[in-house]
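Co-fold these.
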Amino acid sequence: MSELSDRILAAVDANFEAQIELTQALIALPSKRDAEHEAQRFMADALAARGYAVEEVATDAKAISDHPGFSPISVDASTAPSIVATHHPRIEAGRSLILNGHIDVVPEGPHEMWTRHPFDPWRDGDWLYGRGSGDMKAGLIACVAALDALRSIGLQPAARIHVQSVVEEECTGNGALACMVAGYTAEAAIIPEPEDECLVRANCGVLWFEVAIAGKPVHVREAGIGANAIDAAARVTASLRKIEARWNAEAPAHPHFEHLDHPINFNVGRIEGGDWASTVAAWCRMQCRIAIYPGDDPAVRAAEIEGHLRQDLADDPYLSSNPPTVTWNGFFARGYVLEEGTEAEQTLVRAHQAAARAPLQTLTTPGYLDGRVFVIYGGMPCLVYGPLSEAIHGFDERVSLSSVRRITGAIALFIAEWCGLEAIDVDEA
Amino acid sequence: MSELSDRILAAVDANFEAQIELTQALIALPSKRDAEHEAQRFMADALAARGYAVEEVATDAKAISDHPGFSPISVDASTAPSIVATHHPRIEAGRSLILNGHIDVVPEGPHEMWTRHPFDPWRDGDWLYGRGSGDMKAGLIACVAALDALRSIGLQPAARIHVQSVVEEECTGNGALACMVAGYTAEAAIIPEPEDECLVRANCGVLWFEVAIAGKPVHVREAGIGANAIDAAARVTASLRKIEARWNAEAPAHPHFEHLDHPINFNVGRIEGGDWASTVAAWCRMQCRIAIYPGDDPAVRAAEIEGHLRQDLADDPYLSSNPPTVTWNGFFARGYVLEEGTEAEQTLVRAHQAAARAPLQTLTTPGYLDGRVFVIYGGMPCLVYGPLSEAIHGFDERVSLSSVRRITGAIALFIAEWCGLEAIDVDEA
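Predicted complex below.
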């Protein structure tokens, strides 16, 4: 390891308590969907204070709805902007870079299931707890901290860098897409999602849809002549499990997925239906999610689901003549495979080895990643690589602080090699 | 038919348009659970205007919670009073009577499923439409109208009569129970529930319960290690269907139920669960209802359900160690059988024959009735007998106006024979 690398990692270490404090302050802002405004102001202020040129990028349906990466915007879509902070070097000498993280967090669920308040982050040994700690405020702040560490030893990237804090990663991916459509591109991107210090080689696409079922309510004394929409919903779920099984059986045909038992997960994440215990339920709605393989066209897979339901429910005494309504109301997003052996990847291999003293592993992940925007539509390598976490989307979500320190070091070293470094102008410093 | 009977039925006919108007005005007050206050003021005013002594009876948990007919009171229990209007004759000559109806209506469901607004009642041919038209505002007003008809020809009952407009019939039965505990009893009761002009010979008891399931939320990419509470809820429902089947198989052992295919209906009437399409659902709650046979002890049947779930879910990989929580949160009510051949029944047989020109049929109904309060705990015959209706608890609920006219006539004739009649004091008239 070079003497410069040592200095950079030492600077990351020296700044680390301040980095944790910044992370905790961000976790304390509950940036659930369409409630990211305050957290985005916090990010914009933090980035502007560091001298970056900060811009807001709205998720403007008009601007992106014709883009092939667009996901349908539903009524509860975020109205908060994405934030893009740009660093310009004095002399463009290296390769440009996007450091991207998402600000949105998923709902925290019943508070009584948490050990402490999910938006009052707390530390316990190596773990930092709180909703969004792992997914992915620690990673987002790691991008800022990597640059802070360089700055603390009088250095800055010798190339253009955009730090992006985007919305809508947990539901549509339209925030990252809007930033790209707005013109923010680079020669590589890093997204420090909580990937256990591995590099994501391949990931699934995701479709979101609502299944709505109208029942035929009657007094329960006449239950035989009514059709309970809640019961019918369970039959639709069972039918969708067949699609899930069929798509999982395709895994051997998909490189990077052939070794996975169950890459395609179907999930009913939310349900509501009916009005009264003694009334046969007149309606039921389910919010569903299913994965697709890289290369799959969301429109083709969506049509396959609709066709399957029509065919599979043809024998259902009620649903055959009262079919469920399927609405595509969120993610309509492709998966991607990261090409092997790019210079960006080789740079990360070296940076990770130096920071973590371990070889970089790769993995395939069956969840959505904004990486697809950069890889598929931006034509650049996107390195999704971030800290060890547990229970993201669950209770007592947490991120490993020692892991955050390692990946922050690796990102700082990546910047040093990829972008090159220059001395900060004395007037600026 | 006697000349008096003719006069009474003619008076019912003469008053009938006014009766429909009163019924419509009552339907227009959306008296869903804990929103009955305005409708009860309307009833109290209408009854006071007729000269009855009107009292409010609160559903006071302290007063009734030790009563064997008590059902658990949940947080959404009604705070509206029941209304009791009492007629005292000048001279007590006949037998006392309670005319009982419930003011509460069940939720109307999605408005777009109705032809017109559910609380803007409308007539089409013989049908009067609106939520609560059949169940049971037409019947409740029929009690008032039967007395009005007698009054219009200068007559009033020669015995004490209580007209009761009670709350909580659709969820606990505590409204009628509170009136009985408050001391209102009589030698017979009539409840004009929508029973297609039949007399209810037997009916089921009903249990309400909530099933709450805690899941183990994780990101859906790790769905295999999470347990989706919505999926688990469907497995609990399937298990409860086994209880339903077992109890239905007992029907041959229960007099008045032996000829019914499916007297025991289990219903999941409401469900909610989960927070996010891409999060394995952390929680799910179902509002359930099941029937029990007359003679069944609610506590014994409730214990049977809990024991069944423990045993039946013992092999479930998730629910065996994370059992559902069952909470008895409403009806905890016995069924009853109306003894055959009472004088009250014989009186109704004659009254119905005269008013409807058809013999009185009896039936067994698999739904809850407040009749159990009077029969089991009041020791009096309770004649549940009311008009033809369609789609109670459903969309476009409606009641047959010609049927309402017939049962109003029958009730008036019943009063004339059971209570006897006396001339209204000239000063009062």
